[in-house]
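User: Can you recover a sequence for this backbone? Please restate the input before giving your answer.

Assistant: Of course. Working from this structure:
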């Protein structure tokens, strides 16, 4: 209770002190030399070197000038007064250069941000095609490579007869097996199917996946072309053997030997001697 009474008694005294302090006015300082210095510090004017000099009979009589800009002033003051214009806010001042550089950096930051955003968006888009779980949904696969690479999946992994090898007959298959061609074709087929399986099951960038698709397609076309050539050659050889076997008059006599050039000329002259 006593503390409350003391606080109440002090409150009027504080109010009186505030009221009395408000009656005193603060005198504003307006020094022309300080104003001139402020002008030099910004952009208005490089000059107005207050305080001004005063002379009497050629003698400097202004003590303030002598101690600020004159002979009695520090060397740094005289160098400042006689030096170049170093206003930071002049058209080519340091501060304006900093503002311009800051603006340039802001524009560069916007470009970098836009580029990084583009890279990020592209990365997000490519990530959907990176994993092998989404390869079946790729538009290019659906429109082209699925149809072009389908014969690889339909071709048997290990063909055992002429039907699976897409040959004409069993005799052609036996001929290729005897010469070792079937074994080599099987090795090429294994490489093609392995590359196709890797392109479909491995995680890789979308571009690399389609490069593997294209390489697999080229190898498959070469394989089919080579298989067709072997098939045609073997069939032609088999047909020719059958013709010789069925028509023995086409066969050469066992004792036949090629004639010499002299004998050929002699035979020709005997054949045509009655016509000329």
């Amino acid at each position: 209770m006593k503390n409350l009474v003391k606080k109440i008694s002090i409150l009027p005294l504080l109010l009186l002190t505030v009221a009395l302090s408000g009656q005193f006015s603060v005198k504003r300082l307006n020094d022309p030399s300080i104003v001139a210095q402020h002008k030099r510090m910004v952009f208005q004017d490089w000059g107005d070197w207050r305080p001004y000099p005063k002379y009497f009979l050629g003698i400097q009589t202004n003590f303030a000038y002598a101690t600020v800009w004159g002979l009695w002033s520090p060397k740094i003051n005289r160098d400042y007064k006689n030096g170049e214009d170093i206003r930071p806010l002049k058209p080519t001042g340091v501060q304006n250069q900093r503002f311009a550089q800051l603006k340039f950096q802001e524009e560069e930051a916007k470009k970098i941000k836009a580029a990084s955003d583009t890279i990020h968006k592209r990365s997000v888009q490519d990530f959907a095609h990176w994993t092998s779980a989404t390869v079946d949904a790729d538009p290019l696969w659906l429109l082209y490579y699925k149809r072009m690479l389908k014969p690889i999946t339909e071709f048997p992994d290990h063909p055992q007869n002429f039907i699976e090898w897409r040959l004409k007959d069993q005799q052609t298959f036996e001929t290729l097996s005897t010469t070792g061609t079937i074994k080599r074709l099987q090795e090429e087929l294994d490489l093609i199917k392995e590359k196709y399986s890797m392109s479909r099951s491995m995680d890789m960038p979308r571009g690399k996946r389609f490069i593997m698709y294209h390489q697999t397609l080229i190898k498959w076309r070469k394989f089919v072309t080579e298989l067709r050539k072997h098939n045609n050659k073997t069939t032609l050889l088999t047909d020719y053997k059958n013709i010789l076997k069925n028509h023995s008059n086409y066969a050469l006599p066992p004792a036949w030997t090629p004639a010499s050039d002299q004998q050929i000329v002699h035979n020709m002259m005997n054949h045509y001697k009655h016509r000329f």
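That completes the design. Residues 132-247 form one domain.
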